[in-house]
Amino acid sequence: MTIEADIVQLARLTLEGKDADSKALMRRILYSISRQYPELTAQARQVLTLLKTANVARGITASPIPVDSDSRLELVRRDNIHELPIEPIWVPAIKMELDSVVKEHIHRSELEIAGVQPTRSLLFVGPPGVGKTLAARWLAREIQLPLLTLDLAAVMSSFLGRTGNNIRTVIDFAQKSPSILLLDEFDAIAKRRDDVAEIGELKRLVTVLLQSIDEWPNEGLLIAASNHPDLLDPAVWRRFDRVIQFLLPDKSEIYETIKRTIGVNGNIKDSLIQALSDLYEGESFAEVERQINQVRKSSILNKTTLENDIIRLLVNSVRNVGIQKKAIIALALIESGLSQRDASKVIGISRDTIRKYKPGIKQVSGGDDATRK
């Protein structure tokens, strides 16, 4: 296509309000000009810089959010993320992936000049509560794009034609101006297309989604999040530029989450935090934060010390855990000043069992309390 034809197309896209497509075409025209007319390369690069530094969130913020034709409820939630309630701590593998996406979008013009596209689509997979939504919000803050969230499970209805229209409307809206579109509960719609329970309309809708992934503009990001990646159509995996797997936290990550949630003024003994880390092993980040915040609220409202409330939480939790975790909790109580006899009685295991899990604890001759070598 000639530059003249591109300019005609640019005028049409601009009049239709398709900002993302217009800017993508502007870049293509400018690259062509810089190649064909070397004397204009400097000016072309200046305009490319203006495109990069423009307030890309402004256009989409001014656009009305699409609504369902019957209920008149908004189809998508829009957030401009300036800060997060808690700063995430990513495991190295996830941090490397997310940092790379941010860097690509900050330096998008450099990539495009070299004929390379930045990451445009991400698939987040993993169990609930492991940070998929938080990662989308973090990316929106770092790249400085508005975040649009569509809960696919919520918009699914028995009227698949209406569902399809709503999803197409949201996709068109998100593509008009630079943004990050988060398709939550992606498995609700992008299931295997050989499912005998599916009907033609749903299959067509999946096809539309796959085409949208392929055609997503460079200025934005399409993020799909799934709690059940095994349900996804195999074709879906291949369409995304990156697939990031979020796992349940290990004990060291739980420990850091607890410390961060308690805060620097919590003044809680490390042994109690270690015991909580063992207690919550196998739980998600969200569940750990929820439990710790419940204890914090109880401490504030009941005018009790946070440490005593944590001890109470540990004691009340022993009925549901195995011998090893009971021993670890007992040791934490001993570290907090409880006698070995009382810890044994409260937790419901023998002192010999406690000593088995930490030989450094021994019985004081002639007494009932514990001491450490």
Mean pLDDT: 81
User: H/E series, N to C?
Assistant: HHHHEHHEHEHHEHEHEHHHHHHHEE
The description of the largest β-sheet is:
6 strands, mixed
- The amount of helix comes to 40-55%
Radius of gyration: 27 Å
Derived structural class: alpha/beta
- Which regions have little confidence, pLDDT < 50, spanning 5+ residues? 55-61, 360-373
Number of domains as seen in the coordinates: 3
Shape-level CATH architecture of the largest domain = 3-Layer(aba) Sandwich
Cα shape: elongated
Number of helical elements? 18
Supply the CATH superfamily name of the largest domain. Answer: P-loop containing nucleotide triphosphate hydrolases
Kindly, what is the distance between the CA atoms of the first and last residues, rounded to a whole number of angstroms?
82 Å
CATH first level of the largest domain: Alpha Beta
Total strand count, please?
8
Widest sheet: strand ordering: 1-3-4-5-2-6
Strand content: 5-15%
Classify the fold: give the CATH topology of the largest domain: Rossmann fold
